[in-house]
């Protein structure tokens, strides 16, 4: 049996509230992944130099003025 896919727009009232909400279940903003900086402990993006202290892999790679 061939699948009958809907490839066209459907009038809003033809899609039930439940179907619309179920579809939008996966449309959500997720918090960005962070890890604790091993040097200063700030929450930073993984595999990036720390924006607070400028350290990466135990070395200061970006000079930070304090
Ligand atoms: Zn840091």
Commentary on this structure:
The mean pLDDT is 87. By secondary structure, this protein is of the alpha+beta class. The protein has a domain at 34-66. 11% of the residues lie in helices and 12% in strands. A hairpin with a 2-residue loop joins strand 3 and strand 4. The radius of gyration is 24 Å and the shape is rod-shaped. The structure holds zinc ion. Residues 37, 39-40, 42, 50, 52-53, 55 line the site of zinc ion (ZN). The site of zinc ion has 8 residues, from loops.
Unreliable parts: none
Query: Approximately how much helix is present in the residues?
Result: 10-25%
Major sheet summary line: 2 strands, antiparallel
Rg calc: 24 Å
Instruction: Name the ligand types.
Output: zinc ion
Mean pLDDT: 87
- Residues in β-strands, percent: 5-15%
What pattern of helices and strands is seen along the backbone? Answer: HEEEE
Instruction: Give the class from helix and strand content and strand pairing.
Output: alpha+beta
How many angstroms separate the termini? Answer: 69 Å
Give the helix tally.
1
Give the helices and strands, then pairings.
Elements: H1 17-23, E1 35-36, E2 43-44, E3 55-56, E4 59-60
Antiparallel strand pairs: 1-2, 3-4
Characterize this entry briefly.
By secondary structure, the chain is of the alpha+beta class.
Please tag this protein with its features:
66 residues; alpha+beta; two-stranded antiparallel ribbon; two-stranded antiparallel sheet; binds zinc ion
């Amino acid at each position: 049996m061939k699948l009958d896919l809907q490839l066209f727009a459907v009038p809003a009232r033809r899609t039930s509230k439940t179907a619309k909400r179920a579809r939008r279940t996966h449309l959500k903003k997720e918090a960005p992944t962070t890890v604790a900086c091993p040097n200063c402990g700030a929450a930073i993006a993984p595999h990036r130099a720390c924006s607070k202290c400028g350290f990466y892999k135990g070395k200061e790679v970006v000079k930070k003025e304090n």
